[in-house]
Give the backbone structure.
Amino acid sequence: MNRKRQITIREIAAKVGVSIGTVDRVLHNRGRVSPETREKIEALVKKFGYRPNPLARHLKLKKEYQFFILSPYRHEDSGYWGLVFNGIQRAAEELSPFGIHIFFKEFDRYSRESFWKTAHSISLEDCDGLLLAPIIPSEMLHWLNELPSNIPYVFFDATLPDMSPITEIGQDPYNGGFLAGKLLCLFALRERGTYCVIAPHSEDYHIKRRIEGFLAFWANLEGYRTEVRTCSDMDHQETREGFLNSLLQEIPNPKGIFVANSSVHSVAEILNRDNSFHIPIIGYDLVPENERLLREGLIDVLISQRPAYQGYQAVYQLYRHVVLQQVIEKKIPIPIHFYFKENLIQEYSPDLEYKETMFAFND
Amino acid sequence: MNRKRQITIREIAAKVGVSIGTVDRVLHNRGRVSPETREKIEALVKKFGYRPNPLARHLKLKKEYQFFILSPYRHEDSGYWGLVFNGIQRAAEELSPFGIHIFFKEFDRYSRESFWKTAHSISLEDCDGLLLAPIIPSEMLHWLNELPSNIPYVFFDATLPDMSPITEIGQDPYNGGFLAGKLLCLFALRERGTYCVIAPHSEDYHIKRRIEGFLAFWANLEGYRTEVRTCSDMDHQETREGFLNSLLQEIPNPKGIFVANSSVHSVAEILNRDNSFHIPIIGYDLVPENERLLREGLIDVLISQRPAYQGYQAVYQLYRHVVLQQVIEKKIPIPIHFYFKENLIQEYSPDLEYKETMFAFND
DNA sequence: ATTAAATGCGTTAACGTTAACGCAAAATGT
DNA sequence: ACATTTTGCGTTAACGTTAACGCATTTAAT
């Protein structure tokens, strides 16, 4: 159970019969060491698994680490990114004794220009790590390919193929969609009929996979139909109302609706407010507006991507890699998490105040 | 956003006009300081919010921290505690550069004698922190009251009133029961009839609250009946079969069953294996046996208490308190988490291998 | 052949904290 | 009055790592 004490640079030096300076030069590739000595030292380093004591290193260097977050504006996606920032903020506070500093760099997720402007505003010289939301894959890819190769980065929320992040943090969108189907089916009491997917009109890989998962759930069931409809701009009131009206005209009696992103509140507000019948609605993300409507009963289920946890993990794993030089798992999967109106506990709420009633163990 | 640099002991000393030795004596209450000097130093320490650099301290002291886990045997509750241990183990590995060492002290949760024997085997002299599962409240209370007051401890899984733990980690059992009701109702397609609770015959506060929550869900609904039955020993095959047989005789057609603890697999195995009809069953905890039956479809839903996360958090928060001397939130609520057969991802699995298919972002 | 540069290595001073040690001066005991 | 203890404080050596610096040799350049 107890691993043995870590070997120190001084002990390595003694074993080889050189000074610590020489060992240090080998360790940091600072040259001025003969090939034979270098080999001997490298052999021992390997043999004894020497790893520099991160505490001593930090003490000596007094290094301040700068991590940059490249993410959509915090208010976008109905405030989703703000939830991520809460987790990031908390991690930053906890890790401040280690000299971790966080800088938020936000862009408009619908503007390539904004992305580039923001990306270029990051001062790469004194950047020790990047937290990236690859929400515009092509641009992110392009930018990363021109990046100095020595800057470590993590992906959160989504990922990109064929890259080398320290780790990828995210939720399986296919599975989320599948489960959305399952829950929607239950909330509709397995009634036969037509079930709708409402999605933004975008190329977003995540959204597509969620829809695929949702459709996969219904594929083998008999008596059920599914319809996918995309809306060009859910944030714009007229567009939204026009879209939903024509949807209801086309499908007059949908048994349930799955909104594949965080704009589910816009849908639920129109379809389930002041109506004589309730359409089961399931959507994504516990953003404030969605939370409110969940509480009011206009939304039935929300799938959470656990944004604050993702943000926290992104910072923490980067710290583990950069400061502690530990080995990080290549993937950090985020379990799919449901919220009904009865189990609303905001994780890492901004003010750290949790609702007492949700946690009353005694009396 | 950037907090200013922490003040050092040397700077405090300079400001007061004494040496660092004197300041250190004040900080550690080692006497040999005049009252006036002490006051001056204390004032400045307060004013500038001096806090010793945990890295330097650890470097100097080379202090090894010993944390003891006082918990039921890892195999008890169908292996539930083993899952907690996984999270503890992982935290211990991550924190090993800080000299954290973990010692597992396990007892039989059904034997007071075993509890005392185990509790007394903890060498309190070199104990820097305790992780406590207060699963036998009376004995734990008694033991804690006789404990030297300077040892910090955290509660996980459950808590005790009127104590001063560093933090309490746990899930709201009432809410969990309530949601179990809600989900069971959905899985039974809201069919009218009788719904059963099966619980162990014990005084366990958690279990009681879960049942209360479950009953609360049905209380205001019309056409639904609920029946609570306790079984003396679910682990014993004959007792179990006798219990379930008489249950089915009494309630021939239950619409759904809620098992208020992790022994749901025993129930599902008998009631839903090789039967022509499926009774919706919901239970607690993603222990291996339950996971298997969930996968096979004999169990419909499992509520997870996120044992590995609880274990991880318990160690991590204790580390934050003891090593970093940070302020810890008084309560760490564990959100209620559901598993269906489609979203099985084991958090913190022992071998750190996650199921790839659950996290395939691309293609 | 002489100077200059490069190589190979050791030494050392920090980083901030802690606690042992030392040493006056004051307080106490006989 | 003198010995002894106590008080109040400063000094210092670690802890492990890093990188600047120094100093011989060896190698290269003119």
Residues 8-10, 20-21, 24-25, 27-28, 30, 52-53, 55-61 of chain B lie near DNA strand C (CB under 10 Å from a C1'). The two ends of chain B are 40 Å apart (CA to CA). Chain B touches chain A through 58 residues (CB under 8 Å). The longest strand of chain B covers residues 65-72.
